[in-house]
Design a protein that fits this description.
Length: 110
């Protein structure tokens, strides 16, 4: 069935669904097959086809320590946004071992 849904011949998937408040769900997929799938496309955030997930967190510091110990890599350093609708948020992009970008945002302390 995965092949018919995704259009990828021989597709086999591992799926996890994370339920969040408000009835929202986040679906996470890992392709187990086909064996010849690309492991890392080396796309930059500005490249066509790049996607990322943004998650809000309470405190970036302990998370950054776990990221460093896990094999994930920060793309830069945490930055506080000074203007616009996200003013006050502290953000960082990290890449998992497969090259997937995840953005973590610490909300401003009021």
């Amino acid at each position: 069935m995965s092949e018919q849904i995704t259009g990828v011949k021989g597709a086999e998937l591992k799926l996890a669904v994370v339920k969040v408040p408000g009835g929202h769900k986040i679906e996470l997929l890992e392709y187990l097959a086909p064996a010849d799938h690309k492991k890392d496309a080396h796309l930059r955030p500005c490249d066509v086809g790049h996607v990322h997930v943004a998650l809000t967190v309470e405190n970036l510091e302990p998370l950054l320590e776990k990221i460093a110990a896990s094999g994930w890599k920060a793309a830069g350093n945490p930055q506080t946004i000074n203007y616009g609708p996200n003013a006050g948020k502290r953000v960082i992009y990290v890449r998992d071992p497969d090259g997937t970008t995840v953005e973590f945002m610490e909300m401003p302390k009021n």
